[in-house]
Amino acid sequence: MQRDIQNIVILTGAGVSAESGVATFRGPDGLWEGHRVEDVATPEAFARDPDLVQKFYDARRAKLRTVEPNAAHRALAKLDAHWPGDLLLVTQNVDDLHERAGSKRLLHMHGELNSAWCLACDERSRFDGVMADDQACPHCQQSGHLRPDIVWFGEMPYQMERIELALAQCDLFVSIGTSGAVYPAAGFVQSARHYGAQTLEMNLDPSEGSFHFHESRKGRAGDLVPDWVAEILRDI
Ligand code: APR
User: Which protein residue has the closest C-alpha to ligand 1 atom 14?
Assistant: First the structure.
């Protein structure tokens, strides 16, 4: 890895939370906690069966309270605290484990479990409860209009302009625990390379876009990420 690195963009996916006990999306059976993705993670699914979709995300939100950040989340928070240059952690994860570990320079491109989007007033509010029983919007108080603030398939990820700008300005792009199956995140490595960044991947299995990276490290995020953070902080 080059020594003249100032700006870093890190992309994380479900693999970074796997060792905390949060299920990844693409199991060997192609199902996500027993559901086909199209049945729970599309606007069409929500229109067809809102109760099923609400209960699915309610269960995932409840599960969040039982899990803790792991060594990979903690190492990334340490890097955030000590890195003197620009740093942006872009997570595809809807859990809150990066912020609970202490990361500050962070954005959730696929939304957050602990956020509710009111389709009546269009406001987003912190939300920690159960949506299936027609909770009132914390902002406008109307009932029955909340949806999980999650970016579903067919919807536009959040803050793409900010991400593209950070990719164009970074010297190092690091991808951790993501299968590289879902765009636009899967294309970030190519954008970063186009603008001249070094690229590093850390994943349990080679991702679909592994060949795009200058370097691929294979293993568990909880082992690889603390070692990489120690390595990069040694060089500053
Ligand atoms: N350490 C590192 N990598 C791991 C670990 C681990 N302990 N456990 C699993 N992995 C890897 C898997 O090998 C896989 O390549 O993490 C990856 C997880 O892939 P996915 O389940 O496809 O998750 P992700 O890439 O985050 O999915 C992207 O798809 O369903 C949508 O919007 C959803 O944000 C999600 C997006």
Answer: 179
